[in-house]
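Figure 6 in text form: structure in, sequence out.
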């Protein structure tokens, strides 16, 4: 039997010094951060990141806001269940987020900060509870069915279709997480940041969620999460009057220009900032630009 390794971030406390909290969901520990007081800012990560990705925003915003940042089940410091114990599908991710916010008593005036696949998870929650959402901050993400002119990267096709070979690549050699460290950043990541981003994915068993996230991307009606994604797509117009800030790294190997075009088509009033010196990990590449933009956006659109 393959052994698991404990996730050790003790030497990363200079970057990630927050207090870990846990919610029991069906016997598994769901890790989250809850820093500061005030209007709730709920930050939802994608794949293969975790709450570590939002550390700059948490540090900067928690003095004036309540920053709530979960790690999806199987990711970050959350438990890593087996596939027989947890399906790792979109609807479960939304249920987990909903359970967390109910547990914390967060029922209104929510600002969502979304990156990567966190966009679909966060907006699926928003579609369930549109009256609770007051502001949106979007960071190289999506929450609609893929645009007609979008072509899935070859790596995505391989992971979705290659079966045991994909599992060996993602879970055995950790190619997805490690590859993202080099492809998702335009400027290049510092050594300790690389270590932090990949720390939770340190063995075969801990990389199951990384694999399942890609396999769960809804591209056609045959995919199990397609109905949830279609519902989000159909209901995005409910947020036409919601203040929206989009911060977009232009060198994104996954969410390219057609995704930004689609956001702007649906929300022409959104405030958009493009960064020619940033990639998919836009918050890693230009935090010094994004943090003040988010602070200003929140102040100008105070609740």
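Output sequence:
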């Amino acid at each position: 039997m393959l052994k698991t390794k404990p996730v050790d971030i003790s030497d990363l406390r200079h970057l990630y010094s927050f207090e870990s909290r846990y919610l029991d969901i069906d016997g598994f520990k769901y890790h989250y951060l809850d820093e500061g007081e005030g209007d709730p800012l709920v930050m939802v990560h994608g794949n293969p990141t975790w709450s570590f990705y939002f550390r700059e925003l948490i540090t900067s915003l928690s003095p004036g806001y309540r920053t709530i940042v979960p790690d999806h089940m199987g990711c970050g410091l959350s438990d890593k269940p087996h596939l027989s114990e947890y399906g790792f599908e979109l609807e479960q991710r939304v249920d987990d987020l909903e359970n967390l916010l109910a547990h914390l008593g967060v029922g209104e005036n929510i600002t969502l900060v979304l990156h990567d696949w966190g966009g679909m998870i966060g907006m699926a929650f928003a579609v369930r509870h549109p009256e609770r959402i007051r502001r949106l901050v979007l960071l190289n993400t999506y929450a609609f069915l893929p645009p007609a002119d979008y072509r899935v990267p070859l790596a995505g096709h391989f992971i979705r279709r290659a079966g045991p070979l994909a599992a060996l690549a993602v879970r055995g050699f950790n190619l997805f997480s490690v590859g993202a460290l080099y492809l998702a950043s335009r400027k290049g990541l510092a050594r300790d940041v690389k270590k932090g981003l990949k720390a939770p994915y340190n063995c075969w068993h801990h990389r199951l969620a990384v694999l399942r996230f890609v396999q769960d991307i809804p591209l056609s009606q045959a995919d199990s999460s397609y109905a949830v994604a279609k519902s989000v797509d159909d209901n995005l117009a409910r947020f036409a009057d919601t203040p929206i800030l989009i911060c977009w790294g232009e060198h994104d190997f996954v969410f390219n220009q057609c995704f930004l075009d689609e956001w702007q088509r649906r929300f022409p009033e959104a405030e958009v900032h493009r960064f020619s010196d940033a990639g998919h990990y836009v918050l890693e590449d230009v935090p010094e630009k994004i943090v003040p933009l988010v602070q200003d956006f929140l102040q100008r659109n105070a609740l």
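Caption detail: DSSP finds twelve helices and eight strands in the chain.
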